[in-house]
Amino acid sequence: MKTEITITKPDDWHLHVRDGSAIQTVLPYSARQFARAIIMPNLKPPIVNVQMALDYRQRIVRTTPVGLSFDPLMTIYLTDDTTPKDIMEAAKSPCILGAKLYPAGVTTNSGDGVTDIWRRHEVFEAMQECELPLLLHGESLVDKHGNELDIFDREPYFIENVLSELVDEYEGLKIVLEHITTREAVDFVMSSREGIAATITAHHLLENRNAIFRGGIQPHNYCLPILKSEEDREALVGTAISGNPKFFLGTDSAPHARSMKENACGCAGIFTAHAALELYAEAFEQAGALDKLESFASFHGADFYGLPRNTDTITLRKETWQIPKSIPYTQGNVLIPFRAGKNMSWKLVA
Questions:
Q1: Is 252 a catalytic residue?
Q2: In whole angstroms, how far apart are CA 264 and each of 170, 211, 261, 267?
Q3: Contact (Cβ atoms closer than 8 angstroms) between residue 4 and residue 315
């Protein structure tokens, strides 16, 4: 049994660090583990153009703890008003790595998202021409007749009725289906053309939908896309450990104050940055595939985005430690981390 593993320093290809004082709390957790991270643009107001993205990046850079090297890779938020010019300007910036599409209303701060994907053809054409990747929150709220979809069916419906057409119509467009949760997503990405990839979170590898209801409602295990069945979880694990380069690490760590999670209309999002690599190591160890962690965490994403692999390393040691029950957050608030108060079996030591 391995008691220590050293891997090339990984990257996080899907991360929320919020803004303002929240960055000071959550960013250090990611910066000590990851060399780079793709930063999500769903702030209030959303990051919709190059200047906003660069300003946001500077706020993150200024907050990075002294002595840590961390490169925030930015995205712009697609809206009904995004123009091809916006895309071309974004593609010229070395700090912007993609454009994020949230179907309107599907998740946190997505109210400004795209209301009709099929009216955005000129934007997708510009992205294809400029080689700017499209990052997708792949869910539909309603079907083509306007009927509300079951929350557990939103990802498969989106894949069958939206994503499949996008992939076929824009043959040169790189697309990342983020935080996949279902066997259908696994099968689609595996069978798709080159240039189609997906990220997988640690919480979707470790938990199924029972975690939301075990012993009563567990709001800190509620995220979107929502946790799915055990069959889906097993499909994700099998894919993550397969060595297939189309799949790579994206934590989707999403902090919310406890007061925003524990109320009559709790926010979706799970904070995992406090123990991201340790959680992935646990999932890979449970599957008997620790030797596959490095390629999933450190190589596949960089290769997909055409970036150099990192040269530094990090070390995880087999060591028991307890996740804090809460973490100080903003203005007297706290956030509740994933698996709060529970023991971990791996610890980042260097």
A1: yes
A2: 42, 19, 9, 10
A3: yes
Residues 6+ apart with CB under 8 A from 120: 78, 80, 82, 114
- The H or E element spanning position 124 is helix 121-130
**d(C-alpha 278, C-alpha 266), whole Å:** 27
Q: Which two tokens stand for residue 51?
A: 């200047």
Per-residue pLDDT of 137-191, as tens digits, reads 999 999 999 999 999 999 999 999 999 999 999 999 999 999 999 999 999 999 9
C-alpha distances in angstroms, 262 versus 157, 257, 259? 30, 9, 5
Summarised one tens digit per residue, pLDDT across range 306-343 is 999 999 999 999 999 999 999 999 988 999 999 999 99
Q: Please tell me whether the peptide bond between 45 and the residue prior to it is cis, using omega within 30 degrees of 0.
A: yes
Q: Which H/E stretch holds residue 311? A: none
Catalytic residue among 168, 252, 291, 303: 252
User: From CA 157, how far away is CA 149, in angstroms rounded?
Assistant: 8
pTM over 0.85: yes
Exposure string over 55-85, b if 16+ CB within 10 A, otherwise e = ebbeebeebbeeeeebbbbbbbbbbeebeee
